[in-house]
Amino acid sequence: MHLKQYKLFGIVLLTLTLAACSSTEEKAASIIDQSQNAGAVVPADGATTKGYSDEADIAGTELSAEELGAEFSDPQSLLSKRTIYFQYDSSQVQQDFIPVIAAHAAYLLQHPNYKLVLEGHADERGSPEYNIALGEQRAKAVSRLMEAQGVPPAQITIVSYGEEKPAVDGHDEAAWQLNRRVELVYEGVK
Asked: 34: closest CA among 96, 99, 152, 127?
């Protein structure tokens, strides 16, 4: 590992440690408070914009893997992984996904004209309001890690779909596991 990678890993580890220190009560209160913003688009700076009922209102020009670069199509590259999965009822980023998030943060820093939409999702368990809030908390967790690595908040947008856009249909743990996620969608000028 290069010195730069060690520093980046240290920053990510520190961020996770600080995030883990927040109390369960604060997290629960935050999720409950955010449920009032169901269906909202949340820029990374935390401001909530209501009234987006049509995806076209928030969608930019999505970039394909080919437009982003060869590393997005290479299965050996961390950039080819654009889905971050979560444990049941959790918005804590798992250790396995820290290097993936770090790679995407570094890419964004090298490409300031690109924006990243973090789409938060949940499985079907829980109320629709709770799942919107949980999807938002998951997307915010990824955003915080990227911002800790220097990505400007203006380059990140958070959207929560809750349980509304499952990756797979099904009513068992195998399906639920794939539906608890944040998808990384790049937008920019083609």
From this structure: 127
Domain ranges of the chain: 3-187
User: Could you tell me whether strands 156-162 and 41-43 are parallel, antiparallel, or unpaired per DSSP bridges?
Assistant: antiparallel
Q: Round to the nearest angstrom and report the end-to-end CA distance of the chain.
A: 34
Name the pTM for this structure.
0.71
* In contact, 151 and 102? CB cutoff 8 Å: no
- 18 is written with which tokens? 């600080």
pLDDT tens string 2-48:
545 545 555 554 444 444 433 333 333 333 333 334 444 445 545 44
Dihedral sign for Cα 77, 162, 144, 22, please.
negative
In CATH, which superfamily holds the domain spanning 3-187? Answer: OmpA-like domain (3.30.1330.60)
Largest CA distance in the chain: 46
Using one digit for the tens of pLDDT, what is the confidence trace for 99-152? 999 999 999 999 999 999 999 999 999 999 999 999 999 999 999 999 999 999
The answer to whether the beta carbons of residues 137 and 39 sit under 8 Å apart is: no
Tokens standing for 136?
A: 């938002």
C-alpha–C-alpha distance, residues 180 and 122, integer Å: 4
